[in-house]
Write a structure and sequence with these properties.
The complex is a heterotetramer, with 1 copy of chain A, 1 copy of chain B and 2 copies of chain C.
Chain A lengths: L7 E6 L5 H16 L3 E6 L4 H13 L4 E5 L7 H9 L4 E4 L9 E4 L2 H16 L4 E7 L4 H16 L3 E8 L5 H15 L8 E4 L2 H14 L5 E3 L5 H8 L4 E6 L2 H16 L8 E3 L3 E3 L7
Parallel strand pairs in A: 1-2, 1-3, 3-4, 4-5, 5-11, 6-7, 6-8, 8-9, 9-10
Antiparallel strand pairs in A: 10-12
Helix pairs in contact in A: 1-9, 4-5, 6-7
Chain B lengths: L1 E10 L2 E11 L4 E6 L5 H8 L7 E6 L2 E3 L4 H6 L2 E4 L11 H5 L16 H15 L14 H14 L4 E5 L7 H16 L3 E5 L3 H7 L2 E6 L2 E7 L5 H9 L19 E10 L7 E6 L3 E6 L5 H9 L4 E8 L2 E2 L5 H6 L2 E4 L3 H5 L6 H5 L15 H14 L16 H14 L4 E5 L7 H16 L3 E5 L3 H7 L2 E6 L2 E7 L5 H19 L1
Chain C lengths: L2 H33 L7 H10 L1 H15 L7 H17 L4 H25 L4 H20 L14 H4 L1 E2 L2 E2 H19 L1 H11 L1 H6 L4 H27 L11 H12 L9 H20 L4 H25 L1
Classes of the chains: A alpha/beta, B alpha/beta, C mainly alpha.
The complex binds adenosine-5'-triphosphate (2 copies) and magnesium ion (2 copies).
The site of one magnesium ion has 4 residues of chain B, from helix 9.
Chain lengths: 287, 505, 321, 321
C-alpha cells in the first residue's frame, strides 16, 4: 500500500470493447469514485501478453489494489505473485480465483451454461435438435460455457447434429451474422437447423439478425450475458428466446465491498464469491 | 579464347538474337557496334548468364560451356560492366568491390576482416592506377566514379574477358581517357576486352577488331584498321547516309530572350551565382566537367531543385514560384539525364508515357479521349520513327534509343518554347543521335530555345550557337560557337580547376 | 508441334496469365457448386455472397488506390470503425440519415488528406505514418464510445441502406457494384487515374512530366479513407449497431484482396477488377467452406493454402508463356 | 555566419539526422522521468521495461531481417502464437525443457524456409504469400489447442526462462540483449549479413554479381520465423500459459519498431540497433503512459502522434542538413 491518502486502484482488462465487460468496468469506476478512490482503467484490446506488461507497470507504481476484469488469472500468474510480494491485493471480477489473489467475484460460467443449455433443450422438447454452436474458445469464460455445452449435448439423445463455428473477434456480430447466413443457406429445409447456441450475446444477436432477415421459422437462439441489445430482442419476440443475465452489478458491488475491507486492513470474507445469474426469457425481459 | 556459335534469343515472338556468331582472341580489344536494339546488350547478358539462350553454343578455349548463372560466368573469368550500373547504393566502394565474392573473414566468428578488405582494395587501386575514394557510398559517387568502381570490381577476380557495355555513355572526355588507360593496362596483362559503344571515335582508336550487329544478326567482323566511321555506320544501318554536317546557322540578334538567369543559386549551393540567357531560336550549350553542376542547373531552372536567390526570367516574366508543372505550363521542358529513373514510367506503355505531360489535351474531367490520344501517338511514333511493336508495348521492352525518342515525343507534344536537354544523346546510336540533333535544330528554327548539357565537347560544338562553361556550379566562360575549338574549351575547364586548387591552399 | 497449335497454346497461356486469378476463382466456384449444389449454387446464395463481400470490396477499392500510387494505408481498419461509430452516434442523436452519412464521410476525407499531407509534405514512409494514424483513430473511436457497442436508440432509418433490398437485390450489393464500376472507370478512363498509376510507376518521372505528385497522392489517400469510412458506415447500418473495433477485421483481408488482384488483369499493378475478384474469392471461400461445414481451423488452413496456390499458379502460367 | 559555427551547426544536424529517433526516445524518457520520478525513473522499472520489450525486440529483429532483403513477413504473429502453443503442449506432455524449445524452433525454421522458398522459387510477392501462410498457421494453432488457452499442468521448469532472474536482471532481458548483439554482429560484420543488405539494396545487381539471392532470402525468412517462434515460446514461458492468439498482437508493433528504426542510425535502411530503439520507444511509451494513468484511449492517441512526430522530426533534421 502507499502512504498517500487517496487510494489508487488499477482496473485491468483485455476486453473493454465487450459490452458486458464495459458495463462492469464502468460500475467499478463509479463505486470507486463513491469511495473516494482514484481508479485507472487499462485495456489491452484482447492482448494478454500486453495485459501482463501493463499489470507489471501498475505494480511498479505501487497502486493499492488491482482488479482484473474478465481475465483468466492463470495467464498472469507470475504478475499476481509479483503483486503479492509487494503486498498489492489482486481482485478478480468476472475472472477466476487462483492462489495469490485476494478474491474473485463472478457468475459461475459452468452454472450459467447449464442454465441456458437446459432451457434451450427444454424449449425444443422431444423434437430432434439440430444445433449450431457459435463460440470463441480462446476466451476462457466462453470456453467453460462451451465445455459445459459439450457435456450436456452428449447426454441428450435428441441432439442429432452439431455445427460449431468460431466467431471472429473483433467484429463478432458481423462475423456471426455472415456465418449464420451461410449456414442457413446450406441448410434450407425447415428443421435442418432448430437451435443456435451462442457462447455470448453478440454472436446470438448476429445469428438472430440473419434468421430474421432470411425469414426462417422454427429456429431458436440463446445467448449468455444479458446485454441490453439481446434483452431487447428477446422482449420483441425474435428468434432469440433466452439469455442468462449475469449480475454484473452484483459482481462489481461484491468486489468493491471486498476492496474496502482489504484497504481497511481486514481480511476478505470469502475468496470465491458468486453473483447469482438469472435466466431472461420473454416473460421477464421487460422488467 | 571465346567463341559464340549460332546464338538465338527470343523474347515472345520477337528474336533479339538470331544466329549470332563471334570469336574473341586472347588479349584483344573486340568492339561490338550496332544500332539501338540491335541486340548487343542481350548478347552480353547471355555471355554472363543473366539470360539463357534459345539455341547455339558458347565455347571457351574450344570447350563447350554452359553459362547458367552469373556465378558461373565469373568463375570462368568473364567479368562484365553492364550498361546500367550494378551497384548497391547504400554500400561503400569497398563493399561494392567485394559483392558476390567471398569476403575475407576470421576463422572464429566469421567476422569480416574489414582491414584486409581495404588493403586488398587499395592494392588493386594502386595496381590499376585508379584514384578513387572507396570510402564513399555508391549513391554519392559520380557516374564516372561508378564506372571505375565497376571496372575495379571486374578486376578483383581473375579476369580473362572483360565486357564493357557502353562504359563511356555517362563519362566526359577526361574521364574516358582515364578509362582507356585502364583498359590498355588490362590488355597488356593479357585480358581480352569486349567493348560496346556508340562512340565511333573510341572504337576506331581503341579496338583491334570490330563486330557489327544489325537487327539481332551479325553483319560482319572486321579489322578496325580497315574501317572508318562512315563504313561502320553504313554497315550498321545497311544504307548509305549522307554525312550530316553541321550547318552553321546565324541567330537573329534582334530575337527576344526566352530565358534569363541573373545570379541564380540553388538552395544546396550546387549552383552558385549563375547568369546566362538564351534567345529564341538559339541552341546554347553548357559544358563542364562531371560534377560541375550542369544537371543541377537545369533542375533549378525546371523547378525540381530549390532555388535560393537570383532572378529567373522566362519570356520577360519574372518567375517566383517553381515546379515542373508550372514550368511545363510556361513551355519549359526537361529531358532528364537518367531516362529510366526520371524520364519514363517503366511499367506503362509507349502511348501512356508519351502523353503524360499533356494529359489535359486528351481528357475532359470525366474521361480520356482515347481515340485522339491513339491518333496523336501514332503520328508522333511515325514522325520520330520509334521502333516498337505497337503503341501498347511496355516502354521497358524498347531499346534505349527508342525510349529516348519517346521522351522527346512527350516533350514535343507540349509545344515547348524552351528545351532543357541533359545529355540527350547518351547511350543513343549514331543514327538516332543525328536525328535528335536534327530535331533540336528544327525546333530552334521554329523559334524555340534550347539549353543543352553534354559531356561530349564535340556534340556541343556541333550544334550549339553559344557555349557556357560551368565550373563548381558557376559560369566561368562564355563563347560564341565561332572558331572555338574543343581544346580551348577544355583548357578553360582545367585551368579553372587549377586556379581554384591554388586558392584552397 | 504445328504452328497453329503453338499459337493456340500461347494464347491460352496468355489468357491464363492475365486472368489467372479469375480462373482460380471460377475453379473454386465450380468445386463448391459440385460439393454443395443445393445450397451454394443458388440465386439466394449469390445474393448472399454479394452482400457479404460488399464491405470488403468497398474498403479494398480504397486500398487499391493508395497501392496504385505506391503507398500503403494501414489506418483503413481504424477508419472504418470510426466511420461506423460516428454515423451511429449521430443517428442516436436523432440526426437525419443523410447527415449521419455525410459527416463521417467528410471527416474521413479530411483524415485521409492529412495522412497524405504528412506523407508527401515530409516525405516520410506511408507505412509508419498510417500505422500511427490508425492508432490515433482507434483511440478516438474508443473515446467516442467508451469502448462500448452503440446500439440503443438507433432509428430504423439508419438500417435502411444496410438491410433493404431493391428488386430482391440488397442495396449493399448495388452500392458495391456501382462503386467498383465508378472506380474502375476513374482508374482506367480518366486523367486522374492515369496520373495515379504514373506516380506509382515512377514518381520522379511523373513529377518531371508535370504531374502534381503530392496533390494526387493526397487525393488517393482521401479517397481511400472515404471508402473505408463508407464501408464502416454501411456495416453499422447493416448490423444496426456500431462496435468500436468492427472495422479492424477488414484490414488484412482488404490488402489480401488487393494483392490477389494485382496478379490479375493488369499484371503486377493494383487494379480495380482484380481487387474485386480478390475480395470475391476471399468471400466465396468463407461462404463455401462454412456451407460445407468445414471446421473453423480447417477453413483457415484451406483459405491460406488456396490464396498461396492461386498466386503460384498464376505465376507458373506467366512463366510458361 | 562564421565558419566554425557553420561546421558546428552542420555536425549537430548530422547527429540529429542519424540519431533522430534515439533522440526522440531520450526525450520521451526525460519527460516521463520528470512527470513520474518515483515510479518511472527507478531501477525496478528499467528492469521491468527491459523485460516487457524483450518479446517485441526479438520478433522485431526477425522483421528487420526480412525487411533488409526487401521483403515482408506477415506471418510472424501467427508464427509466435504457434511457437508458444507447441512449446506449451510439449511441456504439458512432460517433455524436457530443451525439447520443448527445440522442437518449435525447428518447426519454425522449416516454415520460414517454406515461406522463402515459395517467394523466391515462384517469384511471388512476399506480402500475399506470408499473409496466406499466417492464415494457415493460425488454423493449425487453433487445431492444436482447440482454441483454448493451455495452462494446466505446465511444469515449473517451463516458466524458468520467462520468469527467473540472474543477478536481479530477468533472463528475458539477457536473451533480448544477447540476440540483439548477435544479430547486429551478423548484419554488420559477417558476409551473410552484408549479402542480405546487398539483396535489399539492389536485387538484380546482387544476382548479377553472383550473390545467391534465393538462398539468402530463404535464410532470412527462416531466421525471421525462428525469432518469431522464440518470442512466442518466451512469452508462453513468461505467462506460464499459451494462448492461441497471443502472438498476433506483436505483429503490427514489430513492424512499427522496424520502420521507426529505419529512420535511425542507418538512414532508410532497416537496421538492428534502430529496431531495438524503435521497440524500446514503443515499450517505454506504453509503460510510462500507464504509470501516468493516462486513459487507454488517450494512450493510443498519444502513442500514434508521437510515432508520427518522431518520424517527421527526424526528416526535418535530415532536410535541414
Ligand atoms: N526483357 C526483354 N523483354 C522483351 N524484349 C526485350 C527485352 N530485353 C531486350 N529486348 C529487345 O531485344 C532487342 C535487343 O535489345 P538490346 O538491349 O540487346 O539492344 P542493344 O543493342 O543493347 O541496344 P542499346 O544500344 O540501345 O543498348 C530490342 O529490340 C529490345 O526491345
Ligand atoms: N545523390 C547525390 N548525393 C550527394 N551528392 C551527389 C548526388 N548526386 C550527385 N552528387 C554530387 O553532386 C555533384 C554534381 O553532380 P552531377 O553529376 O549532377 O553534375 P553534372 O555537372 O551534371 O555532371 P554529370 O552529369 O556530367 O555527371 C557531384 O560532385 C556529385 O558527386
Ligand atoms: Mg544495350
Ligand atoms: Mg549531369
Amino acid at each position: 500500500g502507499s502512504k498517500k491518502d487517496t487510494k489508487k486502484i488499477a482496473i485491468l482488462t483485455p476486453y473493454l470493447s465487450s459490452v458486458t465487460t464495459n458495463q462492469m468496468v464502468n460500475l467499478l469506476k463509479k463505486e470507486s469514485k463513491a469511495n473516494g478512490w482514484d481508479a485507472n482503467v487499462v485495456d489491452t484490446k484482447g492482448d494478454v501478453g500486453q495485459l501482463a506488461n501493463r499489470m507489471e507497470d501498475v505494480i511498479a507504481t505501487n497502486v493499492d489494489a488491482i482488479v482484473l476484469v474478465s481475465t483468466d488469472p492463470n495467464q498472469v500468474k507470475a504478475q499476481i505473485q509479483a503483486a503479492k510480494e509487494k503486498n498489492i491485493p489482486v481482485f478478480g471480477c468476472d475472472s477466476a480465483y487462483i492462489d495469490g489473489m485476494a478474491m474473485n467475484a463472478t457468475s459461475d460460467n459452468t452454472a450459467m451454461s447449464k442454465m441456458i443449455t437446459e432451457h434451450l433443450f427444454q424449449q425444443l422438447g422431444n423434437k430432434p435438435i439440430n444445433l449450431v454452436v457459435l463460440t470463441y474458445r480462446p476466451h476462457p469464460g466462453v470456453l467453460k460455457r462451451t465445455l459445459e455445452l459439450d457435456k450436456l449435448r452428449k447426454q441428450n439423445p435428441n441432439v442429432k447434429k452439431v455445427i460449431e463455428q468460431q466467431v471472429n473477434v473483433p467484429g463478432p456480430i458481423e462475423n456471426s451474422r455472415k456465418q449464420m447466413e451461410n449456414l442457413l443457406l446450406a441448410n434450407k429445409e425447415d428443421g435442418s437447423i432448430t437451435a443456435v447456441w451462442a457462447g455470448w450475446d453478440e454472436p446470438a444477436i448476429g445469428a438472430t439478425q440473419a434468421i430474421q432477415a432470411a425469414g426462417r421459422k422454427g429456429i431458436i437462439v440463446t445467448g449468455i450475458d444479458g446485454n441490453s441489445q439481446a434483452v431487447d430482442l428477446i422482449k420483441k419476440g425474435s428468434p432469440l428466446v433466452a439469455t442468462v443475465k449475469q449480475n454484473f452489478t452484483g459482481m462489481a458491488e461484491l468486489v468493491t465491498k471486498q476492496i474496502e475491507q482489504v484497504l481497511q486492513g481486514k481480511a476478505v470474507t470469502e475468496k470465491e464469491q458468486y453473483a447469482p445469474a438469472t435466466l431472461i426469457t420473454k416473460e421477464n425481459a421487460g422488467k | 579464347m571465346l567463341q559464340v556459335k549460332q546464338l538465338d534469343k527470343r523474347f515472345g515472338h520477337h528474336y533479339a538474337l538470331l544466329g549470332v556468331s563471334l570469336d574473341i582472341k586472347d588479349g584483344e580489344i573486340h568492339a561490338l557496334v550496332g544500332e539501338n536494339g540491335a541486340g548487343k546488350s542481350t548478347l552480353i547478358k547471355i555471355l554472363t548468364g543473366i539470360y539463357s539462350s534459345d539455341g547455339g553454343n558458347i565455347l571457351l578455349h574450344d570447350k563447350k560451356i554452359e553459362i547458367t548463372e552469373p556465378k558461373v560466368a565469373r568463375k570462368i573469368g568473364i567479368q562484365v560492366v553492364h550498361q546500367d550500373r550494378q551497384l548497391i547504393n547504400s554500400f561503400t566502394g569497398y563493399e561494392n568491390l567485394f559483392l558476390g565474392l567471398t569476403y575475407p573473414t576470421y576463422k572464429v566468428g566469421f567476422k569480416i576482416r574489414w582491414k584486409a578488405m581495404k588493403q586488398k582494395a587499395e592494392q588493386l587501386k594502386t595496381n590499376l592506377g585508379i584514384s578513387l575514394d572507396l570510402g564513399k557510398l555508391a549513391e554519392h559517387m559520380t557516374p564516372s566514379e561508378k564506372t571505375m568502381l565497376e571496372i575495379m570490381r571486374a578486376a578483383m577476380l581473375d579476369c580473362r574477358l572483360l565486357i564493357l557495355d557502353e562504359p563511356t555513355a555517362a563519362l566526359n572526355d577526361e574521364e574516358s581517357e582515364l578509362l582507356f588507360d585502364l583498359i590498355n593496362k588490362l590488355v597488356a596483362k593479357g585480358t581480352s576486352i569486349l567493348y560496346v559503344s556508340h562512340r565511333m571515335n573510341e572504337i576506331l582508336r581503341l579496338s583491334h577488331r570490330v563486330t557489327v550487329m544489325r537487327n539481332g544478326k551479325v553483319a560482319g567482323t572486321y579489322f578496325t584498321k580497315d574501317m572508318s566511321k562512315e563504313k561502320l555506320v553504313q554497315l550498321m544501318t545497311d544504307q548509305t547516309t549522307a554525312a550530316n554536317k553541321h550547318i552553321k546557322r546565324s541567330v537573329n540578334s534582334s530575337k527576344l530572350d526566352v530565358l534569363q538567369l541573373e545570379g541564380v543559386s540553388s538552395f544546396d549551393q550546387k549552383v552558385q551565382d549563375v547568369s546566362l540567357h538564351v534567345k529564341q531560336g538559339e541552341i546554347v550549350g553548357i559544358f563542364g566537367l562531371a560534377g560541375s553542376g550542369r544537371t543541377e542547373l537545369l533542375e533549378t531552372i525546371y523547378g525540381t531543385r530549390k532555388i535560393r536567390n537570383g532572378k529567373l526570367v522566362i519570356k520577360g516574366r519574372n518567375i517566383t514560384s517553381f515546379s515542373p508543372k508550372k514550368s511545363l505550363s510556361r513551355g519549359v521542358i526537361l529531358i532528364p539525364e537518367d531516362r529510366r529513373a526520371d524520364g519514363l514510367i517503366l511499367n506503362m506503355s509507349v502511348r501512356e508515357n508519351m502523353t503524360l505531360s499533356t494529359l489535359p489535351k486528351f481528357s475532359s474531367i470525366f474521361r480520356m479521349k482515347k481515340k485522339k490520344e491513339q491518333a496523336v501517338v501514332h503520328t508522333w511514333m511515325g514522325k520520330l520513327q520509334v521502333k516498337a511493336v505497337s503503341q501498347e508495348q511496355p516502354i521497358t521492352e524498347l531499346s534505349g534509343g527508342n525510349q529516348q525518342k519517346v521522351v522527346f515525343a512527350k516533350a514535343l507534344l507540349s509545344d515547348p518554347i524552351l528545351f532543357l536537354c541533359d545529355e540527350p544523346t547518351q547511350a543513343v546510336d549514331v543514327m538516332t543521335r543525328e536525328e535528335i540533333h536534327r530535331l533540336l535544330i528544327e525546333q530552334a528554327k521554329k523559334d524555340a530555345a534550347v539549353l543543352l548539357v553534354s559531356s561530349d565537347v564535340q556534340e556541343v560544338l556541333d550544334i550549339a550557337d553559344r557555349i557556357y562553361v560551368l565550373h563548381e556550379g558557376k559560369t566561368v566562360a562564355e563563347f560564341p560557337n565561332k572558331a572555338v575549338t574543343s581544346e580551348q574549351i577544355l583548357q578553360v575547364c582545367y585551368n579553372q580547376r587549377k586556379q581554384s586548387d591554388v586558392i584552397n591552399e | 508441334m504445328n504452328r497453329m497449335q503453338t499459337t493456340y497454346a500461347v494464347s491460352l497461356r496468355k489468357w491464363f496469365r492475365v486472368y489467372g486469378t479469375l480462373f482460380a476463382g471460377i475453379l473454386i466456384i465450380l468445386c463448391f457448386s459440385l460439393l454443395s449444389p443445393d445450397s451454394f449454387a443458388t440465386v439466394d446464395n449469390v445474393i448472399n455472397i454479394s452482400r457479404q463481400i460488399s464491405f470488403l470490396v468497398i474498403i479494398s477499392l480504397g486500398a487499391t488506390l493508395v497501392m496504385a500510387v505506391g503507398e500503403f494505408d494501414l489506418s483503413i481498419g481504424a477508419m472504418a470503425s470510426l466511420g461506423g461509430v460516428v454515423a451511429a452516434k449521430l443517428a442516436v442523436a436523432g440526426q437525419p440519415m443523410w447527415l449521419c452519412i455525410l459527416i463521417p464521410l467528410v471527416v474521413s476525407v479530411v483524415i485521409g488528406y492529412i495522412n497524405g499531407w504528412i506523407i508527401t509534405k515530409f516525405k516520410v514512409l506511408s507505412f509508419i505514418t498510417t500505422l500511427g494514424m490508425g492508432t490515433v483513430l482507434g483511440g478516438i473511436t474508443f473515446w467516442l464510445t467508451d469502448g462500448a457497442t452503440i446500439f440503443e436508440n438507433i432509428p430504423d432509418s439508419f438500417r435502411y441502406l444496410g438491410q433493404k433490398m431493391w428488386f430482391t437485390v440488397p442495396i449493399l450489393s448495388f452500392i458495391m457494384l456501382f462503386l467498383t464500376i465508378v472506380f474502375w472507370y476513374i482508374m482506367s478512363h480518366t486523367a486522374f487515374g492515369r496520373k495515379l498509376y504514373a506516380i506509382g510507376g515512377n514518381e520522379s518521372a511523373s513529377r518531371n512530366a508535370g504531374v502534381a505528385v503530392a496533390q494526387n497522392k493526397n487525393l488517393a489517400f482521401a479517397f481511400c479513407a472515404l471508402l473505408a469510412a463508407l464501408a464502416g458506415i454501411l456495416m453499422a447500418s447493416r448490423l444496426g449497431s456500431a462496435q468500436p473495433t468492427s472495422g479492424d477485421g477488414l484490414f488484412l483481408p482488404a490488402y489480401a484482396a488487393a494483392f490477389l488482384g494485382m496478379t490479375s488483369f493488369k499484371e503486377g499493378v493494383p487494379n480495380i477488377w482484380g481487387t474485386f475478384v480478390g475480395a470475391a474469392i476471399i468471400g466465396i471461400l468463407a461462404n463455401g467452406l462454412t456451407m460445407l461445414e468445414v471446421p473453423s481451423f480447417l477453413q483457415d488452413v484451406v483459405t491460406g493454402c488456396i490464396v498461396i496456390v492461386a498466386v503460384i499458379l498464376q505465376k507458373i502460367g506467366r512463366d510458361a508463356s
